[in-house]
Amino acid sequence: MNRPDAENRDLFAIADLAREFGISTRAIRFYESKGLLSPERVGATRVFRRRDRARLILILRGKRLGFSLRDISDYLSLYDADRTQQVHLLVEKVDERIALLERQRKDLETTISELREIRALAGEGLSKKAG
């Protein structure tokens, strides 16, 4: 995903970032509209810097891990602030996400077990009718 040449560049066009990360320019503009990215403008053209690229990496990672845009925004708002506060927020949000996923896994296991029971009962019913 990350290209070595991109790591060394200072400026990026929106199309460059979209291509590099496999997302649409519309998605990048959406993140900008939510205040998650702040590109500079040269006329009507958006110019993204390394900082914007780094923030986009964090946004996409957060989305992939299931965090809400609000959670991502809260984390990014501390990006240039106190590192300790940023780490505390990250740990808190990660713990919440793990707890949610564990509850979902338990619910899925229960549902799968119930469906297997239903399937077994249905299979027994079919066997009795055939016999």
Draw up the topology in text.
Elements: H1 4-8, E1 11-12, H2 14-21, H3 25-33, E2 40-42, E3 45-49, H4 50-64, H5 69-77, H6 83-130
Antiparallel strand pairs: 1-3, 2-3
Write up this protein.
With 131 residues, the protein is mostly helical. It folds into two domains: 1-66, Multidrug-efflux Transporter Regulator, Chain: A, Domain 2 (Orthogonal Bundle), CATH 1.10.1660.10; 81-131. It is 72% helix and 8% strand. It has six helices and three strands, in the order αβααββααα. The chain has helices at 4-8, 14-21, 25-33, 50-64, 69-77, 83-130; strands spanning 11-12, 40-42, 45-49. It has a three-stranded antiparallel sheet with strand order 1-3-2. α4 packs antiparallel against α5 (69-77) and α5 (69-77) packs antiparallel against α6 (83-130). The longest helix has 48 residues, at 83-130. It starts with a helix and ends with a helix.
Q: Using the CA coordinates, give the radius of gyration.
A: 23 Å
CATH architecture of the largest domain: Orthogonal Bundle
Helix content: over 70%
What is the fold named in CATH at topology level of the largest domain? Multidrug-efflux Transporter Regulator, Chain: A, Domain 2
Low-confidence stretches: none
The SSE order reads: HEHHEEHHH
What's the number of extended β-strand segments? Answer: 3
Return the domain count.
Answer: 2
Query: What does the main sheet amount to?
Result: 3 strands, antiparallel
Q: What structural class is derived from the secondary structure elements?
A: mainly alpha
What characteristic shape results from the CA principal axes? elongated
Q: Kindly, what is the distance between the CA atoms of the first and last residues, rounded to a whole number of angstroms?
A: 59 Å
Approximate strand percentage: 5-15%
The overall average pLDDT, rounded, is 90
What's the CATH class of the largest domain, please? Answer: Mainly Alpha
Protein name: MerR family transcriptional regulator
Keywords: Coiled coil, DNA-binding, Transcription, Transcription regulation
Domain HTH merR-type: 11-78
InterPro entries: DNA-bd_dom_put_sf (IPR009061), MerR-type_HTH_dom (IPR000551), MerR_fam (IPR047057), Tscrpt_reg_MerR_DNA-bd (IPR015358)
